[in-house]
Amino acid sequence: MINIHGKIDCIGLFCPMPIVKIREAIRALAIGEVIEMVADDPAVEADMKSWARRTGNELLEISKSEAIFRFLVKRCR
Fold first, then answer.
1. Which residues are catalytic?
2. Please, which residues bridge with residue 58 across strands?
3. Would you state the pLDDT for residue 67?
4. pTM of the predicted protein model
5. What CATH number matches the domain at 6-74, 3.30.1360.40, 3.30.110.40, 3.30.530.20, 3.90.1150.10?
């Protein structure tokens, strides 16, 4: 089971705001901690994959229920 250390609700926010919010929130975590983000922007999946690659953080999980995406991100640096 993954221990979640923070949650961000980005429902109703569109690019680039979900990335801005995750970038701000992950700074408050210690390395190795995990944050959950939910969002409904259709472009958020591609944006999050790109952001994780660029920043070196790990996308542990991506799931989708109807129009809502859920991401678990581990701070790696």
1. 15
2. 74
3. 95
4. 0.94
5. 3.30.110.40
